[in-house]
UniProtKB/TrEMBL annotation:
Residues holding Mn(2+): 35, 65, 68, 136, 169
Protein name: CotJC protein
Needed co-factor(s): Mn(2+); Ca(2+)
Signal peptide: none
TM annotation in the entry: none
Keyword check for Transferase: no
Annotated source species: Clostridium symbiosum (strain WAL-14163)
Record-linked Gene3D superfamilies: 1.20.1260.10
Binding site for Ca(2+): 60
Length: 202
């Protein structure tokens, strides 16, 4: 199904290592609003999306989130390569280094490992699309926070790109929600129109 191109979706060319900065950014790899959760969320939800527009969109964005994982991983890798023992200790990177050396491992900035409970696939398309829109806004907020504390232009450049894509994804999910609602029974907001939710005519 997928064709892998051996290049990043957006280039990452970081000159200066900075393990402390890497700890901030790794939250967008495996944190609560990171790219792993996003890709798993959308690629799981697509199976219960009843219409082609939504199903195709979830597949497209879920696939793009895999590319974003790769960008974030490249940033972390380049920020942590060639570290000295002194840099590791002084930056607070020691606990991560002891467990993973400088390998890429999914965790939040606070050290909490990635957990699939951080995303939902409910099976109700309206519920899922609202979750998706919220997820994109939370990811955008995280990138905002990163840009507030990170000043290296080589790092900020790909982070800005990723932030822009979160905004685009939010807009696209809004379009998919409107398309879904256009298909619904006009008397009922919810996609599956359960019998207990319909108003009985007298």
């Amino acid at each position: 199904m997928w064709k892998y191109e051996k290049r990043l979706q957006y280039p990452v060319k970081i000159k200066q290592s900075n393990p402390q900065m890497a700890q901030f950014i790794m939250s967008q790899y495996g944190g609560p609003d990171g790219e792993i959760g996003a890709s798993m969320r959308y690629l799981s939800q697509r199976y219960s999306m009843p219409y082609k527009v939504g199903k195709g969109l979830l597949t497209d964005i879920g696939t793009e989130e895999l590319a974003h994982m790769e960008i974030v991983a490249a940033i972390i890798h380049q920020l942590t390569r060639n570290l000295t023992p002194e840099q590791i200790k002084e930056s607070g990177f020691g606990p991560y280094y002891i467990d993973h050396t400088t390998g890429i491992w999914p965790q939040a900035a606070g050290g909490i490992p990635f957990n699939a409970c951080e995303f939902q696939s409910k099976g109700d398309p309206i519920t899922d699309l609202f979750e998706d829109m919220a997820a994109e806004q939370k990811a955008r907020s995280t990138y905002d926070n990163i840009l507030r504390v990170v000043k290296d232009p080589d790092v900020c450049d790909p982070i800005r790109y990723l932030r822009e894509r979160e905004i685009v994804h939010f807009q696209r999910f809004g379009e998919a929600l409107r398309d879904l609602q256009d298909h619904l029974d006009s008397k009922n907001f919810y996609a599956f129109n359960p019998s207990f939710d319909k108003v009985k005519s007298e």
